[in-house]
Predict the structure.
Amino acid sequence: MMKMALFLPELFLLLSCLVIFLLTLGKMSSTTVRNITAALSVITFLICTASLKLEGELFFRAYRIDLFSQIFKLCITGGVALLLLFSSELKGIEEKVRAEYYLFLLLSSLGLVMLVSSVELLAIFVSLELSSFALYLLVPMRDDQGGLREQMEAGIKYILFGVVATGIMLFGMSYLFGLTGTTYLNELIPAMSQVITSPAAIVGIAMVMGGFFFKLGLFPFHFWLPDVYQGASNETTAFIASVPKLGAVALLIRVATLAAPSADALVNLLMILAVCSMFYGNLIALVQKDIKRMLAFSGIAHAGFVILGVLTLKDTGFASAIYYITGYMLMNLACFLVICNVSVKGENLQISDLTGLYKRAPLMAFTLAVGMFALAGIPPFVGFMGKFMLLAGALQAGHLPLVILAAINTAIAIYYYLSVVRISYCTDPEERPAVAVAPLAQAVSVALVLIIIVMGIMPAAVVNIATVAVRGIM
Amino acid sequence: MQDFLIMNTLGYPILSLLVFLPLAGVIPLLLLKNDEVAKYSTLAATLLIAIVSLPLYFKFDKTTAMFQFGEHHAWIPMWDINYTLGIDGISLLLVLLTTMIMPLCVLCSWNYIKTRVRPFLACLLIMETSMLGVFMSLDFVLFYILWEAMLIPMYLLIAIWGGPRKIYASIKFFLYTLAGSVLLLVAIIALYLENGSFSIPMMMGQDYSSVFQIYVFLAFFLAFAIKVPMFPFHTWLPAAHVEAPTAGSVVLASVLLKMGTYGFLRFCLPITPEATITFMPYILWLSIAGIIYGGFTALAQSDMKKLIAYSSVGHMGFVTLGIFVLNVHGIEGALLQMINHGITTGALFIIVGMIYERTHSRELSMAAGVGKFMPIYVTFLGFFSLSSLAFPGTNSFIGEFLVLAGAFSKSKIIAACAIPGAILAAAYMLRMLQKVVWGEEHNPDQSYLKDLNVREILTLAPLLVFVLWIGLNPGPFLDVMHTSVANLIQQVGIAGLEQQNFIEIAKLVIPQ
Amino acid sequence: MEIVASCKPLYAVLTALIGAILVSMAGRKPNFRESLSTVAAVIMFVIIASMVPDVLAGKMLKCTVFDILPGLSLTFRVDAFSMIFALAASFLWIIAVFYSMGYMRGLKEHAQTRFNTCFALSLFGAIGVAFSDNLFTLYLFYEIVSVCTYPLVAHHQDKEGYAGARKYIIYLTTTAKGFVLPAMILIYVLTGNLDFATNISTGILPPDANSTLVTILYICCIFGFAKNGIMPFHHWLPGAMVAPTPVSALLHAVAVVKVGVFSTTRVMLYVFGVDTMSALNLGIPTAYFVSFTILMASIIALSKDNLKARLAYSTVSQLSYIILGVALLTPTAIEGGLIHIANHAFSKITLFFCAGAIYVAAHKKNISEMGGLGRTMPFTFAAFGIASLSMIGAPPVAGFVTKWKLLVGTMEMESHYVGILLVLLASTLLNVAYFAPVTYKAFFGKRPPGEKYEGIKEAPLAMVIPIMIAAIISIVIGIFPGFMMKFVDRVTPDNVAVAMPQYNPAGAPKFIPSVNTHGVPEAHHRLAIETGLT
């Protein structure tokens, strides 16, 4: 029974999936399905909150419940709940597959939730695939708006790149297994420290990380990101852009602990990737017209930023990365909340479509501004605190050039974030209609703004708990 | 607690109160639906803040260089980031200047702002919070957060309520100032790693290595020089000033620019004294360049706001000149000149705003010859112009006098090079004055203009009082800064003794 | 010297300020406005006159209004030196108020309120300069004069007016800010305060100051007070003649230019001091330098047909007499220079008043058009003739006293006296050459062909009476120079001669007591005896 309690969030999520599956068989209206899904996800979130302090191991020690995993579960389910709450109707998804859409969304979440608890290479692989395959299906579910079948292109790209990345990861896992003879992380850590200087170990770790780089959208695993963001429906993109990245960071940290406390080659590699990612993302984002593409490139840049925390291979750095990616999820959700609501029929939004937003939907404009300023790393929002701690951690680890390049990147990035704010605040709506926003979405947006500010001003609690969690897995 | 902070004994946390009262003033704006009431509520809030800030002056202990009215709370313990507030003789007057200017900003926007009044007022109040916080915070992270957070309301002030080229101006403002301060953040973190604390006073007087000092100094310098703005980092300023609404220009000129020079005084000098001495000659010449450049450019302007904006470049050149001559006269003069510039240039922007409200133009040629129809207006303009050109008996004269006295005791050549700036100030200000009061032989028809009303007179009168008060009796203002300035110079002076050795090292780092 | 705290100088200065404010508010009622001006002028003169006994008793009245910085304050002082200028300026204000009333109404000028207000403000500045106790106060009021006279110069608000006024303000503020301000700050840096010394010998600069630096400071001060009209910074003065004549008269013969020379001499004597100046050998070069101005300006005046322009250059030339006298550094020459402040004021204002009267009555500006006009306007031209004599330096008019003193002072010099003597003689001849024809033509010249003087009468009484008063005073102080000399005496007390050993060698005359109550001839007599020239 005790073990059941440990597994309760996953169990409930699985149950929810079954419920939705049953609903898909019937002829229930999509609104009802959505309400049920939202309710279930909120309950999952509450269960995760309740089980935050649990610890234990399951499934032959392949599955560990600890603070580290529980925090991520909390964030993941919280993100999903928020997403479901604000995306009142799936404007961009064909009516007939909406119920299935919810099913796969929950399945993907289930995969992520399991991913963060997996401490064995194969379990990790299986969880990741569970999450990924559900997502592969979500992308092409968009209705064919322009007749260009963009969603299909995006879906194909997503799958192809995903499969390659998974292959690389699997290859890397085989290296690790070959070097150490085990697939259990807690056995790998001491075993790896014996062989960490060998190139094979570095290559192995790097390749395993590659799978998560793909999820995170780090250079050079970023090619899918803009196209998928653009091709997928707004709600799907909101999900892809925020929640799976949590799982990716969680696993990156777990893998990085294999290399701790020192692995110069790996650190150098990560450094190069981080710098490339930041510059590539920020520079290309400057010229984007489609807001989702812009956010995609911004996401690439942010992925580079997160790596700043990971490459310190220290508990503070890891904790900062957790804090940052959590904040990033929230900021992203805030932006996508606005996109989902402003988009009338689920079409993609150009930046110019936000013209005069302050008049058409003041709250949305405000939320968007907060989200953008937060992404830009302007205090007092969470983005700044995260950036600050990442830079501090990296500098502490002695990476001054990296820190300076990162700092320069924040200055580059401000331009495109600012242009969104500018459009929404400084132009007249002309003939664009007012935007109707459901009360629930309004409440969510207020909540997101508040969380973004509060987390930015009082990061101590989050960082403390993250540090404790990280120390638990090292 | 720490040996640099005298805890607040007033019985209420006066500094926190000052920081958070403006935020509290935003709450009614969210609830109110009526713009008129919102204006009164904001005016009341800013006046209340001004009144609350008065005890700072009267209870200020002039005999100590320590930070006073201190407050200290743990904030992010794992990084040793604290919520530490305190003021000394350097920040006291700037805090008071801020609290005094804000009600006037509300008053001068009374009719100027016609759309989205409540968000405008909210922006002003948020500005006030962050500005006051910047001057009070003794923790570097707190400082940096407020320093950057201020960009948002200022950006919105320019971008939403600005003039025709507001988009360009606001983005330029944002990009410049943000780009300047990203390296500041790196420097702050580097300092933290040296000290293990973000407490600003703890960072002072440490024995950092030369190379470290130079890098930190350069990072500081970039951030603050852009904010001041020093030549050649000034190009954002005219654009921002010209496009901003009156209140925005006033806040920008009176307070925001002072943050750069405040940064020099608070951080560069005491934290990296040796680097300061090393770079001093370069900065002095940059200041001179700014003074001369600002003067000549102002002389060529036909847009009144641009004229005043460029005059700001020149005036701030005097301030940096005073700071980096590193003696008592220079620094006290620079501090006083910061206050003076806040008062005078703020007033001039308000004055230009008043004519803009009437003629909807800032062109000198459109405002030519209003003297005949607006005698009260031109009287105020006359006094503030005289103050701006450092007419003896006005506030700026004392500041400029002290700065130049400091400069002359440092280097006669440098001081002599600043003199043409003073002459140019007279030239462009008198030119503007002459044009506005009389114009040319044939002026546009100005007979529809109405002279200032009571509200407008009330906006300008307090500033005029300070112009003459500081000009004739600067004692009360200089008294409060003596001890802190002396302490600051002592901090730099100790470093000067070890200078010889240091210059050799510096030569290796800086290309000669 | 006994120092007495007294608020009287403050009252005197404030009278003009309050007068100006009241005048500006009484704009709509011309009579009330003018009577306010008159009352203010009279009150100011009375207050200043009431300080005469104290000053003559050797007291120095002081009044600190604001302590600004350590060593820097807004302080007034009244001593003999300031009295020379203050008495002349305040007395002439009264006359000028009446005269300008006649002039402005006679020509129906516009903006008379502004005119009167600025007029009073200029006097405020001028008296402030006279009573200033330190360089800062001096500079403050000097700048006030510059700014407040600007609207007066540009009074006509036409192209010419703006051009003249622009030149005026550019010259004056540039020199003041470019030279005086740095000099003042450097002196403050060197000495820690800016207060004038109490006597003319020592100055306030520290004895060990770098001599090059002191020389530079000195040059800055000479050129900085450009109101003194020394070439090459004199161009503003002829340019400013576009102003209405009362302005030219009071300001450019009395207030403004005298503020310039007063400031210059005040700084030469009380900041640098005779000792420093002679130790660094600053006097003789200055004397030669201003000699150039004296001669050059006279020659230019010869070529001017416009009466006011000729007077303007005459002013440039005459102002340099004052500086020349002081620069010679001998007691008598200093006395001669200083007494010329008052003498030139009375005579030159007469000349300008005449020019204005001619313009109002006959609308003539050029000398060539004035042939025979003296027969129509006898009083005006008589006054003009008297004042011309004073400019030339002929007895019994005031200018003679100056010339005499200057010549005697030159004789006291150890060297270089030949050159200076030649300059003085040459300039006297030039003065004759450009002044004499005016009066001569007016009375004895032929009317220009085609000109009819019908309908031209003597100028209105409000103008003629002030003219006559000024002319008569010129004669009175020429015959009885004693009253003014009392003040001048106090400036150069006997001990100054002792302080100047190199100018008092054996064989040369000991310090020559200046003329007291006995008039000029006695001094002449003594000089003749003691130098053995006769």
